[in-house]
Write a structure and sequence with these properties.
- The complex is a heterodimer of chains A (339) and B (281).
- Chain A is 25% helix and 31% strand.
- With 339 residues, chain A is of the alpha+beta class.
- A 6-stranded mixed beta sheet of chain A has the order 6-7-8-3-9-10, with helices on both faces.
- Chain A is globular, with a radius of gyration of 24 Å.
- Chain B has 281 residues and is mainly α.
- Chain B has 2 domains: 35 residues, no CATH class; 210 residues, MetI-like fold (Orthogonal Bundle).
- In chain B, helix 4 crosses helix 10 and helix 5 packs across helix 7.
- The chains are: A alpha+beta (339), B mainly alpha (281).
């Protein structure tokens, strides 16, 4: 039953998505520099980074809405780098959802099929399939303006699912929703995305979301893919200072030791010690119920420290950490030193 | 918008202002309507003649003239409709491609269009007459569409370009990914959403062609081909010794009926088109 809507020239066996040395320059500025990324069938990779890091550009290049200045894109075993967007069999969920505002939910889903000459019965069948999957059956006659933000997002998702594409591209699909709804929708989104065989590329600037939805996360900054790995890999052994600072909240502490290296200690890995360690003074204390977050000053500057809510705080505080929790980076290059 | 009740004196002031505005804009038209329904004698008699003197004679006069007045209405409608269609057919693709381009070309073309749009076209009509003679377009009703479309094109392209630029680009990009052709994207996505702008632009073109005088006067000399504006001028100057107020007023009323009908049909789109850009979302 798969791939019958838009039978493409490619093989039906999806071999995933592969970006090789992809680069893009806009107005003399290097937006993307040599991106290598492979996404397996059925795998969801989140591209995580601050705004302007080039993550949306990658999606646009994969979709064919923008052309790379170098490198190639392989999808399901064929080189699509120079292929017209409509021939690539990609489906994209835009940040704004890009629902056609003048059409009902059902028309939003079926117009594309209609124009491609799919029979009425088949259109109905396909629309029913995704409407059911996303529990949108009751909204089929509504206009997008008559839907809530979460419902619109589901319609956009339904429209993407309907096409049974070779790859799903999602550009900040949650950023227009409020925080609570986002958390509710995350498991649902993950379930839907992982159900299929198509690889998924998910762009976000929210690390919680990336960790909640993706199998692997690629951290992008300055147009360079800093590291790509499972959330655990990124957290436990960040490849450089950028990744270490980007993954984990509150941010990792970076201590200058004066020997040309930086030591990174996560706030949650600091603990009070009787002897030795760093003598610190508490500057600020936030109590969060399950834990408390403190800002302390030490001879290495200010440190962030997360500890249990019951931890007594006194003046004669010394903080230490276990060697296994220590991340060492080269101070000049920011790259990880220890294996 | 808050829904709190208006202060009473404020709302009274507002109503008076609205009435004043209506009087200001409607009074000339009502005056014409009044004049068209009066006998010539009662029009000249001043207040004394207010009692009697109601008549349809002015209407029968213009409708039974040779050629009858509806002939001019028909001519103007045909020329107006064709000019509008021609202008839109040319302006929509122009505006689309211009809105999808950036850089120097857009600036140069945009500036050129603006210059052409504000150029007083009356300065061109002698040259256009020459063109009409050379190409044998004189006394051809449909040929009138050519200068009309040509003169309306710059403004139409500018207006539609702004409307295209207002369309969220993701809508079209999603359609591209769904394998819509360019024509399908225009037909099913962009133009339906731009309907207000397209309608307002079309109406502007239609109005221009409906009211245009010098070109229509000089290109068409056979009376059964004439459009409304020159025909009305002919009625006004038909008598050497008197001004035929009554028939002229009747012609004005008849001549504005089709416009009124168009405005009523497209009322919603026109208002939306005029306020577009002001409110989004």
């Amino acid at each position: 039953m798969k791939g019958t809507i838009a039978p493409g020239p490619g093989p039906t066996q999806n071999t995933g998505l592969r970006l090789a040395q992809l680069s893009r320059r806009i107005g003399g500025r290097m937006v993307l520099a040599g991106i290598d990324l492979a996404v397996k069938p059925g795998e969801c990779v989140a591209l995580l980074g601050p705004s302007g890091c080039g993550k949306s550009t990658i999606l646009r290049l994969i979709a064919g809405l923008d052309s790379p200045d170098g490198g190639s894109i392989l999808l399901a075993g064929r080189d699509i780098t120079a292929l017209a967007p409509g021939r690539r069999e990609v489906a994209m969920v835009f940040q704004s959802y890009a629902l056609y505002p003048h059409l009902s939910v059902e028309r939003n889903l079926s117009l594309g099929m209609e124009l491609r000459g799919v029979s009425r019965q088949r259109r109905q069948q396909e629309a029913d399939r995704v409407l059911d999957m996303l529990q949108l059956g009751n909204f089929r006659d509504r206009k997008p303006s008559e839907l809530s933000g979460g419902q619109r997002q589901r319609v956009a998702l339904a429209r993407a699912l309907l096409r049974r594409p070779q790859v799903f591209l999602l550009d900040e699909p949650m950023s227009n929703l409020d925080a609570q709804l986002r958390e509710e929708l995350r498991p649902q989104l993950r379930e839907i995305l992982c159900a299929g065989e198509a690889p998924v590329v998910y762009v976000t600037h929210d690390q919680q979301e990336a960790m909640g939805v993706a199998d692997r996360i690629g951290v992008l900054q300055g147009g360079i893919l800093q590291q790509c790995g499972t959330p655990q890999e990124l957290y436990n052994s960040p490849a450089n200072v950028v990744v270490a600072s980007f993954i984990g909240r509150p941010q990792i502490n970076l201590l200058e030791l004066g020997d040309g290296s930086l030591v990174g200690i996560r706030p949650e890995h600091l603990h009070p010690v009787k002897e030795g360690g760093l003598p610190v003074r508490v500057l600020n204390r936030e109590w969060h119920g399950a834990n408390q977050q403190l800002t302390v000053s030490s001879r290495h500057g200010q440190l962030r420290w997360t500890t249990g809510a019951a931890q007594p705080i006194n003046d004669q505080l010394r903080l230490g950490w276990q060697a296994e929790h220590e991340h060492r980076f080269d101070q000049a290059t920011g790259q990880r030193r220890n294996a | 918008m808050s829904s709190q009740p208006c202060h009473r004196s404020g709302s009274r002031l507002r109503i008076s202002l609205v009435i004043l505005l209506l009087l200001w804009s409607l009074a000339p038209m009502l005056w014409q309507l009044y004049s068209s329904l009066r006998t010539p004698e009662s029009l000249l008699a001043g207040l004394a003649g207010l009692g009697g003197g109601w008549t349809l004679i002015n209407y029968t006069a213009v409708l039974q003239a040779n050629p009858p007045f509806w002939r001019y209405l028909l001519n103007s409608s045909v020329v107006g409709a064709l000019s509008t269609l021609l202008t839109l057919a040319l302006a929509i693709p122009c505006a689309y491609s211009l809105s999808r381009r950036g850089g120097l070309l857009k600036v140069v073309v945009g500036g050129g269009l603006l210059a052409a749009a504000v150029f007083p076209y009356v300065l061109l009509f002698l040259a256009l007459l020459q063109v009409a003679r050379q190409l044998g377009l004189a006394n051809n009703l449909l040929a009138l569409c050519l200068p009309y479309a040509g003169l309306s094109l710059p403004l139409a392209v500018l207006l539609l370009q702004a409307a295209f630029a207002d369309m969220p680009v993701e809508l079209e990009e999603n359609a591209i990914l769904e394998r819509f052709t360019l024509w399908q994207r225009l037909r099913w996505i962009l133009l339906p959403l731009m309907a207000p702008s397209v309608v307002s632009t079309g109406l502007l073109v239609f109005l221009f062609s409906w009211n245009e005088f010098p070109i229509a006067l000089t290109w068409l000399s056979r009376s059964e081909l004439q459009t409304l504006a020159p025909a009305m001028a002919r009625i006004a100057g038909s008598s050497v010794f008197t001004v035929p107020f009554g028939p002229f007023a009747a012609a004005t009323v008849l001549g504005s009926l089709p416009l009124l009908a168009l405005l009523l049909i497209f009322q919603r789109q026109i208002v939306a088109g005029l306020t577009q850009g002001a409110i989004k979302g």
